[in-house]
Write a structure and sequence with these properties.
By secondary structure, this protein is an all-alpha fold. Helix content is 84%, strand content 0%.
Length: 208
Protein backbone atom coordinates (compact mmCIF):
# COMPACT_ATOMS: atom_id res chain seq x y z
CA UNK A 1 0.00 0.00 0.00
CA UNK A 2 2.83 2.39 0.84
CA UNK A 3 4.34 2.03 -2.64
CA UNK A 4 0.95 2.76 -4.23
CA UNK A 5 0.51 5.91 -2.18
CA UNK A 6 4.04 7.13 -2.86
CA UNK A 7 3.48 6.67 -6.61
CA UNK A 8 0.40 8.88 -6.48
CA UNK A 9 2.19 11.50 -4.40
CA UNK A 10 4.84 11.82 -7.11
CA UNK A 11 2.27 13.05 -9.68
CA UNK A 12 1.43 16.72 -10.39
CA UNK A 13 -1.03 18.06 -7.84
CA UNK A 14 -3.98 18.75 -10.24
CA UNK A 15 -3.74 15.15 -11.45
CA UNK A 16 -3.65 13.93 -7.85
CA UNK A 17 -6.89 15.82 -7.10
CA UNK A 18 -8.57 14.26 -10.15
CA UNK A 19 -7.40 10.76 -9.19
CA UNK A 20 -8.67 11.23 -5.64
CA UNK A 21 -12.13 12.23 -6.84
CA UNK A 22 -12.35 9.48 -9.45
CA UNK A 23 -11.16 6.77 -7.08
CA UNK A 24 -13.57 7.88 -4.35
CA UNK A 25 -16.42 7.33 -6.82
CA UNK A 26 -15.10 4.01 -8.12
CA UNK A 27 -15.37 2.51 -4.63
CA UNK A 28 -19.16 2.79 -4.85
CA UNK A 29 -19.32 1.27 -8.34
CA UNK A 30 -16.74 -1.46 -7.70
CA UNK A 31 -16.79 -2.21 -3.92
CA UNK A 32 -13.58 -4.32 -3.81
CA UNK A 33 -11.66 -1.18 -4.78
CA UNK A 34 -9.74 0.08 -1.68
CA UNK A 35 -11.50 3.43 -1.46
CA UNK A 36 -10.21 4.26 2.00
CA UNK A 37 -6.72 4.40 0.50
CA UNK A 38 -7.91 7.39 -1.53
CA UNK A 39 -8.77 9.39 1.56
CA UNK A 40 -5.54 8.17 3.11
CA UNK A 41 -3.56 9.63 0.20
CA UNK A 42 -5.29 12.96 0.69
CA UNK A 43 -4.50 12.97 4.39
CA UNK A 44 -0.84 12.19 3.68
CA UNK A 45 -0.61 15.10 1.23
CA UNK A 46 -2.17 17.51 3.69
CA UNK A 47 -0.32 16.22 6.75
CA UNK A 48 3.15 15.84 5.29
CA UNK A 49 3.34 18.74 2.83
CA UNK A 50 1.17 21.32 4.56
CA UNK A 51 -1.00 21.83 1.49
CA UNK A 52 -4.48 23.35 1.50
CA UNK A 53 -6.96 20.81 2.85
CA UNK A 54 -9.85 22.31 0.87
CA UNK A 55 -9.21 20.78 -2.61
CA UNK A 56 -8.51 17.35 -1.11
CA UNK A 57 -11.73 17.44 0.90
CA UNK A 58 -13.81 18.74 -2.01
CA UNK A 59 -12.59 16.20 -4.57
CA UNK A 60 -12.94 13.08 -2.42
CA UNK A 61 -16.33 14.22 -1.14
CA UNK A 62 -17.61 14.98 -4.64
CA UNK A 63 -16.34 11.64 -5.92
CA UNK A 64 -18.02 9.70 -3.11
CA UNK A 65 -21.28 11.58 -3.60
CA UNK A 66 -21.24 10.87 -7.35
CA UNK A 67 -20.66 7.17 -6.70
CA UNK A 68 -23.54 7.02 -4.21
CA UNK A 69 -25.82 8.71 -6.76
CA UNK A 70 -24.89 6.15 -9.44
CA UNK A 71 -25.68 3.29 -7.06
CA UNK A 72 -29.03 4.86 -6.19
CA UNK A 73 -29.98 5.30 -9.85
CA UNK A 74 -28.96 1.71 -10.57
CA UNK A 75 -31.29 0.55 -7.80
CA UNK A 76 -34.13 2.58 -9.31
CA UNK A 77 -33.44 1.08 -12.72
CA UNK A 78 -33.54 -2.46 -11.31
CA UNK A 79 -36.92 -1.77 -9.68
CA UNK A 80 -38.41 -0.11 -12.78
CA UNK A 81 -40.64 -2.01 -15.25
CA UNK A 82 -38.83 -3.88 -17.98
CA UNK A 83 -37.81 -7.29 -19.24
CA UNK A 84 -34.29 -8.55 -18.69
CA UNK A 85 -32.79 -11.31 -16.56
CA UNK A 86 -31.73 -9.01 -13.72
CA UNK A 87 -35.12 -7.34 -13.31
CA UNK A 88 -36.84 -10.72 -13.63
CA UNK A 89 -34.65 -12.12 -10.85
CA UNK A 90 -35.59 -9.28 -8.49
CA UNK A 91 -39.27 -9.89 -9.23
CA UNK A 92 -39.09 -13.47 -7.96
CA UNK A 93 -41.44 -13.93 -4.95
CA UNK A 94 -38.70 -14.75 -2.45
CA UNK A 95 -36.50 -11.85 -3.54
CA UNK A 96 -39.49 -9.53 -3.59
CA UNK A 97 -40.31 -10.45 0.02
CA UNK A 98 -36.77 -9.59 1.05
CA UNK A 99 -36.99 -6.27 -0.80
CA UNK A 100 -40.24 -5.52 1.03
CA UNK A 101 -38.51 -6.12 4.36
CA UNK A 102 -35.73 -3.75 3.33
CA UNK A 103 -38.35 -1.19 2.33
CA UNK A 104 -39.92 -1.32 5.79
CA UNK A 105 -36.50 -0.82 7.35
CA UNK A 106 -35.84 2.22 5.17
CA UNK A 107 -39.22 3.68 6.06
CA UNK A 108 -38.17 3.67 9.72
CA UNK A 109 -34.42 4.29 9.67
CA UNK A 110 -33.41 4.96 6.06
CA UNK A 111 -31.56 8.21 6.73
CA UNK A 112 -29.56 6.65 9.57
CA UNK A 113 -28.67 3.60 7.45
CA UNK A 114 -27.29 5.78 4.68
CA UNK A 115 -25.24 7.98 7.01
CA UNK A 116 -23.75 5.15 9.06
CA UNK A 117 -23.00 2.93 6.05
CA UNK A 118 -20.05 5.16 5.10
CA UNK A 119 -18.23 3.72 8.10
CA UNK A 120 -18.77 0.12 6.95
CA UNK A 121 -16.11 -1.24 4.55
CA UNK A 122 -17.01 -3.31 1.52
CA UNK A 123 -20.81 -2.98 1.60
CA UNK A 124 -21.31 0.78 1.28
CA UNK A 125 -22.63 0.59 -2.26
CA UNK A 126 -25.35 -1.93 -1.36
CA UNK A 127 -27.16 0.55 0.89
CA UNK A 128 -27.59 3.06 -1.92
CA UNK A 129 -28.66 0.41 -4.42
CA UNK A 130 -31.24 -0.75 -1.87
CA UNK A 131 -32.43 2.83 -1.34
CA UNK A 132 -33.07 3.17 -5.07
CA UNK A 133 -34.83 -0.19 -5.30
CA UNK A 134 -37.30 0.55 -2.49
CA UNK A 135 -38.12 4.03 -3.82
CA UNK A 136 -36.41 6.04 -1.09
CA UNK A 137 -36.27 9.79 -1.69
CA UNK A 138 -33.42 10.85 -3.98
CA UNK A 139 -32.95 14.11 -2.09
CA UNK A 140 -32.79 12.39 1.30
CA UNK A 141 -30.46 9.73 -0.09
CA UNK A 142 -27.96 12.26 -1.42
CA UNK A 143 -28.18 14.38 1.73
CA UNK A 144 -27.46 11.34 3.91
CA UNK A 145 -24.63 10.34 1.57
CA UNK A 146 -23.16 13.83 1.86
CA UNK A 147 -23.33 13.82 5.66
CA UNK A 148 -21.77 10.36 5.96
CA UNK A 149 -19.03 11.21 3.47
CA UNK A 150 -18.20 14.49 5.21
CA UNK A 151 -17.96 12.74 8.58
CA UNK A 152 -15.77 9.89 7.32
CA UNK A 153 -13.48 12.05 5.21
CA UNK A 154 -13.16 14.50 8.09
CA UNK A 155 -12.10 11.67 10.41
CA UNK A 156 -9.41 10.38 8.05
CA UNK A 157 -8.12 13.84 7.16
CA UNK A 158 -7.98 14.76 10.84
CA UNK A 159 -5.90 11.64 11.43
CA UNK A 160 -3.60 12.70 8.60
CA UNK A 161 -3.14 16.16 10.08
CA UNK A 162 -2.38 14.77 13.53
CA UNK A 163 -0.05 11.98 12.42
CA UNK A 164 1.53 13.97 9.59
CA UNK A 165 4.10 12.28 7.39
CA UNK A 166 4.11 8.95 9.25
CA UNK A 167 2.61 6.95 6.40
CA UNK A 168 3.05 3.57 8.06
CA UNK A 169 1.11 4.74 11.11
CA UNK A 170 -1.70 6.04 8.90
CA UNK A 171 -1.92 2.76 7.00
CA UNK A 172 -1.99 0.84 10.28
CA UNK A 173 -4.78 3.12 11.55
CA UNK A 174 -7.03 2.40 8.56
CA UNK A 175 -6.18 -1.32 8.58
CA UNK A 176 -7.09 -1.61 12.26
CA UNK A 177 -10.36 0.21 11.76
CA UNK A 178 -11.28 -1.95 8.74
CA UNK A 179 -10.55 -5.14 10.68
CA UNK A 180 -12.69 -4.02 13.63
CA UNK A 181 -15.51 -2.98 11.30
CA UNK A 182 -15.53 -6.39 9.59
CA UNK A 183 -15.56 -8.13 12.98
CA UNK A 184 -18.53 -6.00 13.99
CA UNK A 185 -20.36 -6.84 10.77
CA UNK A 186 -19.66 -10.55 11.28
CA UNK A 187 -21.09 -10.40 14.81
CA UNK A 188 -24.23 -8.63 13.59
CA UNK A 189 -24.66 -11.13 10.73
CA UNK A 190 -24.25 -14.04 13.16
CA UNK A 191 -26.84 -12.52 15.51
CA UNK A 192 -29.33 -12.08 12.66
CA UNK A 193 -28.74 -15.64 11.45
CA UNK A 194 -29.08 -16.99 14.98
CA UNK A 195 -32.36 -15.12 15.47
CA UNK A 196 -33.69 -16.47 12.16
CA UNK A 197 -32.73 -20.06 13.00
CA UNK A 198 -34.22 -19.77 16.49
CA UNK A 199 -37.54 -18.53 15.09
CA UNK A 200 -37.56 -21.36 12.57
CA UNK A 201 -36.83 -23.91 15.28
CA UNK A 202 -39.61 -22.56 17.52
CA UNK A 203 -42.14 -22.58 14.68
CA UNK A 204 -41.33 -26.22 13.91
CA UNK A 205 -41.58 -27.14 17.59
CA UNK A 206 -45.00 -25.51 17.91
CA UNK A 207 -46.39 -27.38 14.89
CA UNK A 208 -45.08 -30.80 15.94
Amino acid sequence: MSEFINAILALPRPLVWAILGLAAGIEYVFPPFPGDVVTLVGSVIVGSEGLNIFPVFVFITAGGLAGAWLDFEFGRWVASPGDNWLKAWFRRPRVKRNVDRVRKGFEKHGDLYLVVNRFLPGIRALFFVAAGMVGFSRRRTLLAALIGTLLWNGLILAAGLSIGANLDELVAFVDRYTTLAWIGLAVIAAAILGRFLWKKFRSKSSTS
